[in-house]
Protein 1
Amino acid sequence: MMATAPAHEFLTDHRGAPKPRFEMPLSYEAARLGMAFHEAGHAVLAMAYGMRVITSEVIAWEPEPGGWALTGNTAHEARNTPPYRFAAMAAAGEIAQVGYLMAYGLWTPERAYACTADHDREQAIDMLAEFGYCLARDHVPAGGKSWGMVRGMARRKVGHLWREIRTVAHAMDAGTVLTGDEIADLTGMVNPRFEGGVA
């Protein structure tokens, strides 16, 4: 665990606003594994949908003596990814983290709420809008999809890939940072290489 907070970009959303903070009523160890499931959800679905995963990590620090805070980051590169699959990858983190609570007998309404990742939803909405696709928060827009529909896509894919997500989450919890190639080795999935992309 780091003694100080991570770099500013890990604590802000894609617009530069601070990410909301939620109290997770769990021990540090259980909450850290939950964050690893969150990032593993992003990383495994990214890879399953043909994106290149660069790194996926849990970031922990001590904001005050005896306290702890957690976030995570999954860096990826997407090329020609169908837009709603990109959105499902964004939704997968929260879904995998709540799935962890349920699978490990830790689920409560308060803990599920603390998994909320509206910044992932907002990033997906903004990214899709840049390319002319409509993703709405609370309704099905003409010619587009709702966040609920995208969450349904992600929930199905997370269910199919739960073994891979669990494997990656436990490895990430033990090692903090995994490269995309390490994730591919752990899961048997393919981490694509793009011409002129990140090595």
Protein 2
Amino acid sequence: MSTGFVVREAVDAADREACFAVRKEVFVVEQGVPEDIEYDAHDADAVHLLAVGPDGPLGTGRLLTGLLPDPSVGSLGRLAVTRAARGLGVGAALVRAIEESARARGLTAVDLHAQTHALGFYERLGYEAYGPEFPDAGIPHRAMRRPL
């Protein structure tokens, strides 16, 4: 696989379907998350980002605003990278693009709920865990935040 890819906002229905296809592959098929909870009402208002390589979609993530008590903090979620694209820097590029999208919207920090196996990944990107571990879709998570 080529390591060349771009990360951009999903701009049309085809892009959004590509985002959802990556999420289905990673969360529903690989991790066993029930499909009926993977997609939610927030998808309609989210800013979806898509990593695309020469052979198609490689990863996705989304930014939600206005959900937390502090309206200046955005929520990064549904970060997923296809198995074939892992280790190529796609996940880090998606996180940075989501942060840029948050900055462009005037947000001052980004919160996320990380699967505990991914804590080190987010820590390397400047996120700090807080609060207790909790289950989400049967998978252990921790809340994390990074000021922008």
Protein 3
Amino acid sequence: MSGPPPSTARAEDDAEIVAQSLEQSELFALLYDRYAPDIHRYVARRLGDTVADDITADTFLIAFRIRSRYDRTRANARPWLYGIAGNLIGKQRRAEVRALRALARTGRDPLDVSGGESWLEDADTRIAAQGPLAGALAGLSAPDRHVLLLVAWAELTYQEVAEALDIPVGTVRSRLNRARRKVRTALGADPAFVIDVAEVA
């Protein structure tokens, strides 16, 4: 046998799981079990449930195919997976902006055509993405919006966002600061009240 059986894989270390999955491909399912619900929830908040199913599946398929290139110095695979999902979301950017603008204009979720569960499923999301905020998010550049939503919706740390997007932490801070400033301004906040988040973090 070339490695430990699935039940003895070091579950706390994603890098070890990825490494072992090169010989025992079934071990990669541990990462899916660990992170797929979070990836799906994040994509659904941005693009809707139907697209989230496909993007989540594609995220893990791509991750599995390129797992030999995973940086094993990173014990946590979560940022890597969000980076892959982000690239796939980027291909759907126009749909996301259209949905945000429609929500800003009408206050109605454009992806809720059935009257059932909508793009914005829970109350805190519905409140957060209503009208003016949706318009403000749609007005951000794709890189700024992506950083803001990885922090706000995926709850990644600045370091994890940097790893996910393969950019320096300083760039994360500046994009996040710019995005927050634009959103606050769009929502009518006093520009003097806008705090430099780089100093707070």
Protein 4
Amino acid sequence: MTVDSSSMGEMLATAVPMVRTLNLEFVEVTPERAVLRLPDQPAYHNHLGGPHAGAMFTLAESASGAIVLTAFGEQLSRAVPLAVRAEIDYKKVAMGPVTATATLGRPAGEVVAELDEGRRPEFPVSIAITREDGAVSGEMTVIWTLRPNS
């Protein structure tokens, strides 16, 4: 199965209800980079009036999922992508809309080669969460795996 990056937003909004709930916007999705935006929505504010930490986590994790599905879409018939663990650092207070930019931490070809060898590859996706002024509000790393189908 091949994943068309132009329809990634619709696909994830259908498959992952939280994407739809938070009204995440898919700005750019390629096998090299995924950029998602969380609009400023009072229903998802924290006690300071900015985006709640949980909403920012979901934004960043969703960006990582978008790049994984786009980069490894051709492997979906033989393996399922799964997030293994995640770590997030909140750097600066965010106010207003925030954007998450995800990048693969290993070349996709290396990951697929491990899958071809019958292994269950793990690979990091790094995500920067930025405010409208460009300041980095948070950084997240999600470790993903491609679990071979039985």
